[in-house]
Amino acid sequence: MTTAFPTELNYAYGEPRATALIRQQPEDFQVTENLAFEPEGSGDHVYLYIRKTGENTDWVARQLAHFCQVSPREVGYAGKKDRHAVTEQWFSVHLPGRAPLTWSLFERETIQVLKATKHGRKLRLGSLTGNRFAIRLRNVTDVDDVMRRCELVRQGVPNYFGEQRFGHHGGNLTKGAALIKGEYKERQKHKKGMYISAVRSFLFNQVVSARYAGEVGPMAGDVLMHQGSQSCFAYDAEDHTIGERLANLDIHLTAPMWGRGRSICTDQAFDWETAQLAGYEELQTGLEKLGLNQERRALRLLPQNLSVVQEADDQLLLSFDLSVGSFATSVLREICQVENAQRGEF
Are 235 and 222 a contacting pair, CB within 8 Å? Predict the structure, then answer.
């Protein structure tokens, strides 16, 4: 399992000049979850809105199961949140017929229960519209350049999967490739899924990066996606509104999430995408054999409600909303070169 994968990805606006430090303290990286629905207020599942500081989501879920004296399978959450951060997220616990618990007894210095209500169903992964980020940039070497680039990223950034997807030193990706090639076995289902997802994400990133290396405009056979939707449609060169709609950020070009089935991308665009993935045919075939379906993902990511506040001469607070499945690191990398105080450079 020593395969080397390229890690350099193209920028939308050129490589940033400024450098900055993030995550010096947990409070420097804050994430607030936006649930996709409102809990009903009744039912057998207790929903808890929890603020955690410097704690892992799975660890909090296990502590919650222990406190409630239930199996960890009875605890749900919509998404995993960073450990080295202050995050607010929902958890659910299946407690049918149980007397109300005193949630303040579950609290500790790093865990606070902000809200408790009920709902009829367990909270499932992905039940979000997105997340709100507030990220403090310390030791900024060129504040003016960061401010300028913040304005640029309002027009979108490459929708790359972040380093978290690929694991420490790309370990998830390496294991996923070895698994597909039959050189490695993984019995745990969730780990296997994580490794395979890393391979799929890597192929997507390569196509997106290649697109940003040249002209990002549409070509014959391209597939476009509506902003804020998974709805796709084929590019029609006779539709003269496409260019304006792309410029207005109403629609986006897409790249493949590889899997089985005929791609809806055709003609010149299909040939171009195939050429970008030359050398990875074994991985593509392996993903198809695993039964994953061919999908499309927007190659442009729009940070919503972006704001930047200067807190000191070399310190900024950057805030923005991202849709579910998007990575804050993809926004940050376009703004400045960041050093993570917890793990070194991204």
Answer: yes
pLDDT digit string (tens) for 209-230?
999 998 668 999 999 999 989 8
Percentage of the chain surpassing pLDDT 90?
89
Give the structural domain span for 108.
Answer: 37-125
Amino acid at position 15, single letter: E
The pLDDT of residue 343:
67
Q: Which CATH number belongs to the domain containing residue 285 in this structure?
A: 3.30.2340.10
List the one residue out of 338, 261, 346, 321 whose CA is nearest residue 295.
261
Q: Are residues 143 and 208 in the same domain?
A: no
Find the catalytic residue in 44, 58, 82, 222.
82
Q: Which residues are paired to 249 by β-bridges?
A: none
Please state, in angstroms and rounded to a whole number, the distance separating the CA atoms of residues 53 and 163: 22
Gap between the Cα atoms of 275 and 283, Å rounded = 15
Q: Estimate to the nearest angstrom the gap between the alpha carbon of 68 and the chain centroid.
A: 31
CA–centroid distance for 84 within its chain: 16
pLDDT band at 335 (very low <50, low <70, confident <90, very high): very high
Question: 264 and 139: one domain?
Answer: no
CA distance 236 to 222: 9
82 included as an active-site residue: yes
66 phi, psi to nearest 5 deg: -65, -45
The DSSP secondary structure of 25-87, one letter per residue, reads: SGGGEEEEEEESS---S-SSEEEEEEEEES--HHHHHHHHHHHHTS-GGGEEES----SSSEE
Torsion angle of the four alpha carbons 282, 288, 291, 296, in this order, in degrees rounded to the nearest 10: 120
